[in-house]
Amino acid sequence: MKVKKLAPNFILCSLLTMTVLPAVGGDETSATPASAANWPQFRGAFARGVADGALPAEWDAASGKNIKWKTPIPGLGLSSPIVWGNRVFVTTCISGKDDSELRVGLYGNIAPVEDDTVHQWGVYCLDKDTGKVLWEQTAHEGAPAVKRHTKSSHANSTPATDGTHVVAFFGSEGLYCYSMAGKQLWKKDFGVLDAGYYKVPEAQWEYASSPIIHQGKVIVQCDVQGDSFVAALDVKTGKEIWRKKRDEVPTWSTPTVHEDADRKQVIFNGYRHIGGYDLESGKELWWMEGGGDIPVPTPIVAHDLIYITNAHGGAAPLYAIHPTATGSITLEENTLTNQHIAWSYARRGTYMQTPIVYGDHLYACRDNGVMTCFDAKKGTVLKSVRLGSGRTGFTASPVAGDDKVFFSSEEGDIYVISAGSKPRLIAVNKMNEVCMATPAISDGALIIRTQHHLFCIQQ
How far is the C-alpha of 149 from the C-alpha of 154, rounded, in Å? Predict the structure, then answer.
């Protein structure tokens, strides 16, 4: 198989030797991964962020303690790694400039980065056991159609796989589908997808919603400056199955699918339009408005409740919604519950991070590192813990396993918290690089993306 190089000066010669890849199992229409080793989309199956298996509490990137492998990834990409079987997939974008101009921390500057050089958007496939690059493909080359925020990249969207297809979304540069061996199967051009602050349209921040695959459908959420929509495409061909317009401001949230005996629905976060849509037809099932006007977190489902949060603009709600919700479920003024909303808070939601439910507890961490543990069923606040100094930003979403919850700071410190009603700090592990991507978990290993590398951490 001929592989197109993303960067001619990228030194990985010993890692780029092509090998015959083993056959891949897994039904392309499967609703769940074929094994616990798989982490097929942003935050794993259904964005739950939880995996079984023993996980290390401590490691050291400098000395190599519990570091199984470390592989450089060129360019700048804030997408998260995904895993299927023995393969790890990640996306990136290489600028024509040497300085990527990535700025982290707690600040309010909304101006985008000025860089109209020729970029390369690419997909990497690595061996999970060794970290060797098995293949790489350039999806698109050219000047970016939309600018990015200083805390963003042109490869924000996490890829998704069903064990047969790998889809990678690069916003205005298109949606691409590859085989597991790296052959491009189809691509879809949605035109310019301009995501930024709706009150200041010139503040372009770049697209970030990740695609998901469920029962042969690729689901995308394209909330942008004008002509927002959500859609389902055939994963084999890229043909649209349905598309629904949305009266919505730009969002950066990834959708979630939920199935029960009564319905199959796709759940979308939003500001004007949080809602559930029928998986097969796209018909709206329920909807609500209000909350934070820059929605980023992904909806998650646990304990027969849909948890949705967003923030910015004076509001930071956290909702626990019954999956049976129908019609308009918007809360009346000065109320926190109704027949469709089991419990909610007006000011305890999160801005960037997707919360996580692990066992009977929901953990939600704000940008400044204040993490709150809730009773997931009742909504009772159990304990709050400060991670970091209060001056450190937290963007990546937490993941959990082995009675531990892992939170990544932008500066590259991974905070390990004990799970339970009284969480406590167990360890702080330094990656020594900026870390803004959510980790993946597979076979007892944490796969963590930093600004320049992909790490596999295993005891």
Answer: 9
Which residues contact residue 102 at a Cβ distance below 8 angstroms, ignoring those fewer than 6 apart? 76, 150, 151, 153, 434, 451
55 class by beta-carbon count within 10 Å (0-12 exposed, 13-18 middle, 19+ buried): buried
Q: How many residues does the chain have?
A: 459
Q: Is residue 6 part of a domain?
A: no
Angstrom CA distances, 157 to 1, 93, 235, 438, stand at: 26, 11, 17, 11
245 by DSSP, 3-state: which? strand
Is residue 7 a part of any domain in this protein? no
What per-residue confidence (pLDDT) applies to 101?
A: 85
β-bridge pairing 425-430 and 413-418 = antiparallel
CA distance 307 to 322: 9
The residue type at 19: T
Q: Using 50, 70 and 90 to split pLDDT, how confident is the model at 19?
A: very low
- Between CA 38 and CA 26 the distance in angstroms is 10
Does 109 map to a domain?
Answer: yes
Q: What pairing do the DSSP bridges indicate for beta strands 356-358 and 370-375?
A: unpaired
DSSP secondary structure code for residue 438 in this structure: P
CA 429, CA 196: separation in Å to the nearest integer?
Answer: 33
Q: What is the number of structural domains in the chain? A: 1
Has residue 2 been placed in a domain? no
Q: What is the pLDDT of residue 231?
A: 98
Residue with tokens 């996580």: 356
Check whether 18 has a pLDDT greater than 80. Answer: no
pLDDT of 306 over the 90 cut:
yes
Mean pLDDT over the full length of the chain: 92
Q: Is the pTM of this model over 0.90?
A: yes
Domain containing 452: what range?
Answer: 13-457
Residue 245 has pLDDT above 60, yes or no: yes
CATH number, domain of 363, equals 2.130.10.10
Strands (E) across 279-424 are located at: 284-288, 300-302, 305-309, 318-321, 327-328, 341-345, 356-358, 361-365, 370-375, 381-386, 399-401, 404-408, 413-418
